[in-house]
């Protein structure tokens, strides 16, 4: 019989080597996560666990096929082309009906694996099924173009031609919870993914150093990790405003230790939040020797600021390996457009420090500023936040941020008639053409006659890593707000 929508799912080696009770517990988590993945995509499914495998029956084969490869804990899986009873005659009829055309004119092989007691061996079955297919093709056991796989499990035989790669690792949530520091760059996203692959349910902490546009970009990275990989979990991102913390630190700390002290302050923020979340560890994207704060000496100076286990899954990887994984998990295109805001300007950062020296410099900072940042941390549910919300909440502003360059996108004649004081006049076409020459360290605010073109331009600029915003409303509303603010009290 045909078995459209049926998949055989095989456990990763990490599960297969567990003791019976532990394997059963992990398999139950995996089963729940597979159902969550399919349900999230609107696929109705039921799952049967038998013979050390999951048998997934889904009403949408194409969607299920795309999703199963991203559920942690799966070594590989196969769409079942047909199934029948564990009887050689039935199996011979089934293989001819479903595979004679598939192998026609091609080199083929038949591979049979059995679990249970049967009146035939695996070799007997391979010879019998091969004899059925021989008139249509040529046997080539060494380099077949098509391999017909048969798994005989108890009283049933399952036929398939594909063994698709799974995500491997351990089922998400089977190894506790951690809080991952997320900057939006290649490293922190890959580090979080690697811990998720080891079964750790991850929430994210973003210490914002550069405003709403940066926040939006980082949330988009976290959203990709959530939507594509966090099946069975409910990740949240916590946003801590670090502007006051960084300003205070720069005013009091030796500039050569800014990077080290900043990391210590982030570790303290993560520790405070992790305690509330009952997270057992902190995850970072640090790779040994990649930047000045990630030398062995500086990592040793930073680590005492944490009050729990610090996991560094990238510590032994080089940048090429990290970027390759970022492309695999789907965050690379977003991450490559995010500027490195954590790299504070200093020409001579210390590459060697001690915990004592770093702690002494940290002691010069305002402890209350850090406490306020922790207390005011905002929580965003990544599973429910939508693209429309990201656009509305992070694209528009009502006031011009300090040090921002204001760009008036009206025609020149309208600009001459009235514009915000200090605004420069640029056509939408010139903004797009010259954008690559803009300074990414500076914020930009755009406005136009009706508020539509400026919003579109600001969104494009954000996508390319700029701190760009659109003033809310058209020129009439903007002028009215400006005139009101300019009136004497």
From TrEMBL:
- Give the HAMAP family listed for this entry: ThiI
Q: Where along this sequence does the record place binding of ATP?
A: 181-182, 263, 285, 294
Q: Please tell me which top-level EC class this enzyme sits in.
A: transferase
InterPro entries assigned to the protein according to its UniProt record, in alphabetical order: Rhodanese-like_dom, Rhodanese-like_dom_sf, Rossmann-like_a/b/a_fold, ThiI_AANH, ThiI_fer, ThiI_N, THUMP_dom, THUMP_ThiI
Entry annotation: catalytic residues: 448 (cysteine persulfide intermediate)
Give the pathway annotation. Answer: Cofactor biosynthesis; thiamine diphosphate biosynthesis
User: Organism, per UniProt?
Assistant: Chelativorans intermedius
Protein task: Catalyzes the ATP-dependent transfer of a sulfur to tRNA to produce 4-thiouridine in position 8 of tRNAs, which functions as a near-UV photosensor. Also catalyzes the transfer of sulfur to the sulfur carrier protein ThiS, forming ThiS-thiocarboxylate. This is a step in the synthesis of thiazole, in the thiamine biosynthesis pathway. The sulfur is donated as persulfide by IscS.
Catalysis performed (reactions): [ThiI sulfur-carrier protein]-S-sulfanyl-L-cysteine + a uridine in tRNA + 2 reduced [2Fe-2S]-[ferredoxin] + ATP + H(+) = [ThiI sulfur-carrier protein]-L-cysteine + a 4-thiouridine in tRNA + 2 oxidized [2Fe-2S]-[ferredoxin] + AMP + diphosphate; [ThiS sulfur-carrier protein]-C-terminal Gly-Gly-AMP + S-sulfanyl-L-cysteinyl-[cysteine desulfurase] + AH2 = [ThiS sulfur-carrier protein]-C-terminal-Gly-aminoethanethioate + L-cysteinyl-[cysteine desulfurase] + A + AMP + 2 H(+)
Q: Which UniProt keywords apply?
A: ATP-binding, Cytoplasm, Disulfide bond, Nucleotide-binding, Redox-active center, RNA-binding, Thiamine biosynthesis, Transferase, tRNA-binding
Per the UniProt entry, the Enzyme Commission number(s) are 2.8.1.4
Q: Which residues form the Rhodanese domain?
A: 400-487
Q: What is this protein called?
A: tRNA sulfurtransferase
* Molecular function terms from GO: tRNA-uracil-4 sulfurtransferase activity
Where would you find this protein in the cell?
Answer: Cytoplasm
